[in-house]
Amino acid sequence: MTFRYIFQLPFVTVLLLCWSAYGFVADAAVRDIDGNVYRTVSLNGMVWMAENLAVSHYRNGDAVRHARSTAEWVDAARKREGAWCYYYNSSASGAAFGKLYNWYAVSDPRGLAPEGWRVPTDRDWENLAGLFGGKIAAGRYLKASSGWSPPGSSATNSSGFSALPGGYRRSDGKFMYQKAIGLFWSSTKFVRGYAWFRNMNSRNAVLFRNDTGMGNGLSVRCVRQY
Q1: Within a 10 A sphere around the Cβ of 170, how many other Cβ atoms?
Q2: Three-class SS of residue 126?
């Protein structure tokens, strides 16, 4: 077995590649522009973040608007301006669940994901679900085995994806469902004002596909090809 480390700067990606009779198996960590480091997991030729995004700047260094108050959050949606917040504006929540972003931040051409990465498309999510029995069963394998309240329906996290129930912030500023539901943006627009996302809850194993308003605040995972 051989090992090779690859470093990419300034957004440092550290890859450990192991060669075996079954091919390359990748284990990786990625650093965003703010210096946050994320665990990752390799699944069928794609590398996914195994933690929720917590960056507060776009790739070019511009700040993403931090919308703390209800008025600020509503104003960002009205202006179609990218924004982030912590659930209940609690940095302790951010340490556990990352940040919540509206879709305008997700789709901003300055780039929310680290260099070489992207916010997953609707098709990326569909392909991920397909690896674990489709949407009816995939949540069981994708959800973290702890952190869900009540406990998440035999969640195994056998995928290593470690989905967390970060809840969301509605476009009117109200916070809802942390520890019960994990909601994750796709980069794919549905119709004007709405985009596709995926969600998992603590009561069943389903990976739901729904659309929601672009002014809502959801969690973000990022993905890249090997």
Answers
A1: 17
A2: helix
